[in-house]
Each structure stands twice: as structure tokens, then as C-alpha cells.
């Protein structure tokens, strides 16, 4: 950060503008207006990053000005794509995201890197005065989520997690119905996602491909020799970088449950599972039982034995003392007194509908108010996923202190709440 920018921030803080909520964008001190265009950079443009490019370049008030990827081929292909998405507009490419954070003309970034980079990049972006649209899962571990929230609040930043299903009308309506009390007090929620990691075999390491910065791809993760199966899309099946199907889909379906019920007082977690076949080490299948105050949440790989679940590859089943509700991304069914329906028209709309997940982020950046899937909410919803993986790794039930955010009397489990980054990549604290 330049000295001049730091002096401006100190002036804002000392003059009381920050206390009034009049936080200004770092690249437009004194002249950022709702009509101004938002300058966005995309970090990680292999798979989901290309969706980010298409989504944001289609928004009328957004200019995509930079891309970054550690794989030169990904970057070159994405720069070509941007020529068709934004004809005639210059987009610069980088191999190191820190060059993007150094640019004062960039207002916000999106992050679609592998999971183990999410928190460091977001936190450094907050510290550089940039807002963040970050892919799920929120972070690699619990401590990273705490670090992200602490820095977001300190630097008055905006964050939206990229669980795009959150923006759908179906989820909004499910939440309205649950909150209305139509099915009574909910005591049990069953969440599931079918699927298993592919059998990646037991390949050996090979030379790093030309144009791939493997050391930076690994970043904070432990160093290993290059194995193609550990890189790019299939990275998600290795615990050093992600958490398999569970981490990939938890936030998409747990989202509707946490939004509707805001579970409190998590007391215990117990997971059962089996390692994937071959070199991968995330679960082949997984079951996790969560015990909250007055609520039990169960995660399974197979659909639970409840009405309507068998034909859904992903879903949430709410059991209340007056009825039940089952939903997936696009559908829902409510059963009360033996009668099943898809809606209860008498329940009014009480939640403002989303203009679109990415538009919601842009609107939040301009208004300086947090979007729907904001960091505080996303962290609270993501935390049980991390704890479920820790229980799986240790193979035992764990007791949790939700106030201190620590396991009770279990040093081995608490050690897994964070991971020390490799020395060269300890960029944030």
C-alpha cells in the first residue's frame, strides 16, 4: 500500500467518516458514485473462473480489467475469451495475483482458485482495500475463516461467497415457509449429496509442465512433487487442498438450512466415512451427525429414508412438529396433515428477491452494505463442514465449544483447526 493511500485512510478514520458508514472505494477516493463503472479482476481462470468472467462482463456497470492464473495456458485462453466478451477493451494478464492487488485502479476481485488459496487471497485483497467475490468453500480451515472476518471488518470491505444457488427464488421461498412456522418447530434437518470421487489410481510424479508455476499453485499447502491428478479440477479430492464432495457441495445445500434456521449452540460432531480409492484421500462416502441446541442436522452421501428423497441427488429435508418440507435447488414439497403441496400462497413474500448473485455483489459494493451471502453468514454456515472433516480424519466423536470455537479437551482435534503455511507463502496472519 502506498503511503498516500494509508494517509487517506487515517484521515477517514480520524475524521469520523468511517463511523458514519461512509467508507470509500480505495481506487476512487472522493469521486465514486453509483453511476460509476466497477473495475473487476478475476484471479484463477481455469474452470469456475471462466464463469466469473462471463457473469461479470455481462453486467452493464462492470469492466473486467485484469486476469490472473498460475497456468500460462489457462491465462492465454481466458484472455482470448475476454476479447469476445469485452470487444475492444484492454484486459491485462498476470501470473501472480499480488500484481493485481497492487493496482489502484481495481475496485474488486473475484477468486476461483483451488480452495487452499481462497482465504489468503481474500484477506490480502481486504488489506489492499479491495472487495471480494470468493468461490466456495469459504476457506481451507476454521482459523482462516476467522482471519477473513477479522480483516473484512478491520478494512471495511464487502464480500460475497459464490454459492450461486442462494440467489434462486426457490431458496428464498423455502426460507419464508420455514420461518413462517407452517411446519412447526423444526427439530431435525437431513442434508445429502450423492456421488463419490473418481478412482485416480496411484500415479507417480512427473516433470512440471511448461508454463505452470507449481510452487505457487501449491502456495500455503505442503510441498509435493507434481502429479497431474493433484492439480486443477481433481485437486478437490485431496485433503491438502480441499475436502472432496462434502466440501464442494456442503455450502450449496446447507445454505438453505442455515438461512432458514440459523442453528446455534453446536455441541458435538461425529463423522463416519471411507477413504476414496486410489491416490485420493477425501471421503468416498461420508455421514456426519451434528447436535445443536434444539436441532439435529445429519449429512449423508446417500439419500435418507424419507418421502421424496430417493429421486433427488442433493437435498434438504426439514422435519417439524406440524409437518415437513423437502427441497433441492429448484423444487420443494411441503407436507402437512398428510397433504402435500408445492407452496402455501397464504404465506406472504417477506424476503427481497435477489437481482442475481453477481449483481447483488456489485450493488453491495456501490451501497457499502453487505450482500446476502456475506462473509459473517458464510463463515457461520461453513464452519460445521470443517468440523465434520476433522471428525472424519480422527475417526471419533468430537465435543465443541461454540463460544470459544474450540474442541473440548482435545488438543489433537484443535491442532486441525488451522494449518501453518509453508514458510515462503506465509503471506497473511
UniProtKB/TrEMBL annotation:
Residues 204-426 form the Gfo/Idh/MocA-like oxidoreductase bacterial type C-terminal domain. InterPro entries: Gfo/Idh/MocA-like_OxRdtase_N, Gfo/Idh/MocA_oxidrdct_glycsds, Gfo/Idh/MocA_OxRdtase_bact_C, NAD(P)-bd_dom_sf, TAT_signal. Residues 38-162 form the Gfo/Idh/MocA-like oxidoreductase N-terminal domain. It holds the Pfam family GFO_IDH_MocA. PANTHER family: BCDNA.GH03377, NADH-DEPENDENT DEHYDROGENASE-RELATED. This is Dehydrogenase. It comes from Arenibacter algicola. The lineage of its organism: Bacteria, Pseudomonadati, Bacteroidota, Flavobacteriia, Flavobacteriales.
Amino acid at each position: 500500500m502506498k503511503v498516500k493511500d494509508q494517509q487517506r485512510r487515517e484521515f477517514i478514520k480520524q475524521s469520523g467518516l468511517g463511523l458514519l458508514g461512509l467508507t470509500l472505494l480505495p481506487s476512487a477516493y472522493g469521486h465514486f458514485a453509483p453511476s460509476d463503472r466497477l473495475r473487476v479482476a478475476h484471479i484463477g481462470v481455469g474452470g469456475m473462473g471462466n464463469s466469473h468472467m462471463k457473469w461479470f462482463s455481462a453486467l452493464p456497470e462492470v469492466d473486467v480489467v485484469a486476469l490472473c492464473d498460475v497456468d500460462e495456458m489457462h491465462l492465454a485462453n481466458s484472455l482470448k475469451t475476454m476479447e469476445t466478451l469485452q470487444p475492444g477493451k484492454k484486459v491485462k494478464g498476470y501470473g501472480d495475483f499480488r500484481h493485481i492487488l497492487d493496482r489502484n485502479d481495481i475496485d474488486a476481485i473475484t477468486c476461483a482458485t483451488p480452495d487452499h488459496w481462497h482465504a489468503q487471497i481474500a484477506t490480502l485483497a481486504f488489506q489492499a482495500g479491495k472487495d471480494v467475490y470468493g468461490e466456495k468453500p469459504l476457506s481451507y480451515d476454521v482459523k482462516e475463516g476467522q482471519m477473513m472476518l477479522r480483516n473484512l471488518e478491520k478494512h471495511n470491505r464487502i464480500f460475497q461467497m459464490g454459492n450461486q444457488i442462494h440467489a434462486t427464488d426457490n431458496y428464498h421461498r423455502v426460507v419464508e415457509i420455514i420461518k413462517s412456522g407452517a411446519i412447526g418447530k423444526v427439530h431435525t434437518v437431513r442434508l445429502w449429496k450423492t456421488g463419490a470421487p473418481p478412482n485416480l489410481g496411484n500415479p507417480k510424479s512427473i516433470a512440471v509442465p511448461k508454463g505452470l508455476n507449481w510452487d505457487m499453485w501449491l502456495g500455503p499447502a505442503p510441498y509435493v512433487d507434481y502429479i497431474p491428478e493433484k492439480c486443477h479440477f481433481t485437486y478437490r479430492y485431496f485433503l491438502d487442498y480441499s475436502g472432496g464432495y462434502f466440501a464442494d457441495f456442503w455450502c450449496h445445500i446447507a445454505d438453505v438450512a442455515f438461512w432458514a434456521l440459523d442453528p446455534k449452540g453446536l455441541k458435538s460432531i461425529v463423522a463416519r466415512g471411507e477413504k476414496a480409492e486410489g491416490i485420493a484421500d477425501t471421503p468416498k462416502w461420508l455421514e456426519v451427525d451434528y447436535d445443536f441446541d434444539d436441532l439435529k442436522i445429519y449429512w449423508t452421501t446417500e439419500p435418507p429414508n424419507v418421502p421424496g428423497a430417493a429421486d433427488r441427488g442433493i437435498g434438504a429435508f426439514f422435519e417439524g412438529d406440524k409437518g415437513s418440507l423437502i427441497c433441492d435447488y429448484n423444487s420443494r414439497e411441503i407436507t402437512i396433515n398428510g397433504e402435500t403441496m408445492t407452496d402455501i400462497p397464504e404465506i406472504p413474500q417477506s424476503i427481497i428477491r435477489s437481482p442475481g448473485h453477481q449483481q447483488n455483489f456489485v450493488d453491495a459494493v456501490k451501497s457499502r452494505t453487505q450482500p446476502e451471502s456475506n462473509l459473517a453468514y458464510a463463515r457461520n454456515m461453513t464452519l460445521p463442514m470443517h468440523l465434520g472433516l476433522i471428525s472424519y480424519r480422527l475417526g471419533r466423536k468430537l465435543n465443541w465449544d461454540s463460544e470459544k470455537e474450540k474442541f473440548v479437551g482435545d488438543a489433537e482435534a484443535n491442532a486441525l483447526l488451522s494449518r501453518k503455511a509453508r514458510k515462503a507463502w506465509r503471506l497473511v496472519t
